[in-house]
Amino acid sequence: MKFRFKKFRVYQDAKDYCKFCRDIVEKYFANRDKGLANQIQRALNSIVLNIAEGSADNSDIEFARFLGISIRSVYETVAGFDLASFRNTLKT
User: Fold this and answer.
1) Of 5, 23, 71, 91, whose CB neighbour count within 10 A is largest?
2) Widest CA span of the chain, in angstroms?
3) What is the pTM of this model?
4) Who contacts 39 (Cβ-Cβ below 8 Å, separation ≥6)?
5) pLDDT tens-digit profile of 67-87?
């Protein structure tokens, strides 16, 4: 079975973003604030998974809806890092 999302540049970029952010979470605060780290990681998964899920139908409207959900998850990760910084959880 072919999965068309694997060829999409947005999917590849989302995976790279996910790995980059996960590395930061693991290195700097996964042990300090497990709840926030878990929430960010779930949002990161959501970015990639919604791109894949939205590509399942051949409807551009449906795909655009799922891309919107992915973008909202990007905002959630940024807010999570902002919250970690605000809480002084994110330290080097």
Assistant:
1) 5
2) 46
3) 0.89
4) 76, 80
5) 999 999 999 999 999 999 888
